[in-house]
Amino acid sequence: MSENARLRSRVLAKLAATIVVAGALVAGLLLPWIGGPGLVARNSVSLLDSLPVELTDETPAGPTRVVAADGSLITNFYEHNRTPVPSDQIAEVMKRALVDIEDSRFYDHNGLDVQGTMRALMKNLAAGEVQEGGSTLTQQLVKQTLLQTAATPEEREAADAETVGRKLREARLAMALEEKYSKDEILTRYLNLVYFGQGAYGIQAAAQRYFSVNAVDLTLAQAAMLAGLVQSPFYDEPINNPENAQIRRNQVLQRMFDLGHITEQELAEISPQPVQVAPGLAAPNGCIDAATGGFFCAYVHQYLISELGLTQAQLDRGGLTVQTTLLPDLQAHADQAILGTLPMGDGLAGMFTALQPGTGHVLAMAVNRRYGCDGPECESVVLNTAASKGAGSTYKVFTAAAALEAGIGAGTTISTPGDRYTSRVYKGPACGDRERNGTDERGMYCVQNVGDYPDTLDMVGALVRSSNTYFLALEDRLGTVEGPVRMAERMGMNFDQQPNQWPADTIIAENRGSFTLGTDATSPLDLANAYATLGAQGTRCEPTPVTAVLDRAGQPVTGPDGAPLVSGDNCTPEAVPAPIANTLANILVGDVATRAGTGTRAAIPGHQIAGKTGTAQDHESVAFAGFMPEYAASVMVFNPKEKQKVPGFGGTMPAQIWHDAMAPFLAGKQTSQFAPADPNLLNGGRPRAESRPRTQSQPRPQTQTQPETPAPPPAGTDATPGQIDATEPGVVEPPAG
């Protein structure tokens, strides 16, 4: 059989099917009227009762909007680019053009146009091809609604099947819709639903995509072109097929003229002109299109699904509003601060992660990367939440807090002469290349300081200066790392990211003395949250990027139990006793505000800032955590892909980035002073007596002293701001296994 013969056979088959369908529709749908008024009433009720829920919604759902704390748009999530608009936001000429070309008897029929169906049938038979459809706008609305809301391939196939049963059901549902909604409501729903090509669903998206205008501002020429796209949105769209678009637009204009809805002059003026387009961009979709905070957006997306239990289908089709905690101004300052230090896509990644003490609201997440794209500047992992590298001496705060809780006061002095200390409790690598003797063969853990330190320090001076030897000796006093590890967890640290992290129970079971030196892979968000707990006087809050999830009507989305998915902040008061948190906060002010501190670059005049620097083994990672009662933020710098030495210490790049992000953000804002330190914790905690003679590797006998205020910088170091970090130590990796 020739190609022409096969084509003719297919056309004849389709015409035959059309005759059968038309006959069935006429017979099936006229039957109720034949039975009398009583049967008509009963059938009307059954039609209304049979309406699927998809057809009872007043408008199709728009995109899920993700907004910042100030209400500005971050991005959307959608399957279809659609922005529903009410009837008064659609140009009347657009409504008239669509009705004229698609269903000129729209205002006369009840959802099924028998006259129009038979007219189309006769026209198609006479032409020997399908030239005109018989479906009303209401029938098309039914079909498109069922197609676009189909959850399975089977549902989609059923909504599009060329069968008599589908046509009958479609017609009955169309009649039911006409019973329930006004003509204007049906037309508005149709215009908000139908596909116009170029990814634009609904008239507002189409007006923006092709003409960069709102639907209410469409002109006659623009409306005619859009009305013509409904039947063939691919072949007749004007961006790629301008000639086809002009022909189809002119057909619409001719139809409007034939029906007396435009003048001969309007027809004559527009028809010769090519279609004029001013293409606009599609609405942002997903975190790759985020207007700001792409990595924060990805964190929100993960939180919505893993923590709140929403599905991607709900996000793409639900028309929700997700209210987030992002502060766009802080995000912008953080982006600029990181890029001012590390270029976009540099091998070293810099992460700034901020949240609010007392609420856990995540305020900003900045990285010198672009989220979700392809290329050297791109990253799909949210480095702000991933545990990648150690955070160095920032972990000394956990040991200090555990010691204070155990009754070892901040005034406790420990002597560690020779800038090295070998543990009496913890096993691990020995110090450097020193001569091995009987003592070293015990395999006890040993650490060294970087630079010259006083032989004797108390906890205040050791924390401000970041003394390795003091804190390993302090761990010896505790006898086990369980206190520091559990304190870290209480403050907000997690050790559950496999395979990068060791579980807390493993660290405790192996009694790893290196814990106090921050060798464990650390999430920047966890680090910021732990220090936020100190800023909130010991109240720990679970980090949250979302304050509300609202449905399309503006009501809170509820879970299976009927309660709102977001019910408030999740905080634990006194996770750390307030006297301990306040005392540590006051001590850590010295790390930023005094010449002896290692984080002086983070200082901002007019604001009391506490902080702690950290440098991991071999400088693979450097960190700074700074906080106030109102804000806490961590900065970490490392290469997430491979081993690379980071120049400087935690007080150089990280502290500088922290300052450069926070200084412009805090300009004009007032922040609070920390609550006073507890005098008993500063002065109490009498040391335990030595039980055996001291060797060079053991601490000297202790004496009770008053806390330092803090003391001058160690001898042999440059005390000028920004160079104090020469005293900050490196650390030793924990034993494997």
Would you give an account of this structure?
By secondary structure, the chain is an alpha+beta fold. Among the domains are: 10-49 and 80-270, Biosynthetic peptidoglycan transglycosylase-like (Penicillin binding protein transpeptidase fold); 385-416 and 452-539 and 574-725, Beta-lactamase. It has 25 helices and 21 strands. A five-stranded antiparallel sheet has the order 7-6-21-20-19, with helices on both faces. The protein has a four-stranded mixed sheet with strand order 2-1-5-17. Strand 20 (621-627) and strand 21 (632-638) form a beta hairpin. Helix 6 (137-148) packs across helix 8 (164-180), helix 17 crosses helix 20 and helix 18 (459-465) packs across helix 23 (578-593). It is elongated, with a radius of gyration of 35 Å. The relative contact order is 0.10. Mean pLDDT is 84; it is low at 10-16, 27-49, 433-441 and 686-737.
Characterize this entry briefly:
The chain has 737 residues and is α+β, with helices and mostly antiparallel strands. It has 25 helices and 21 strands.
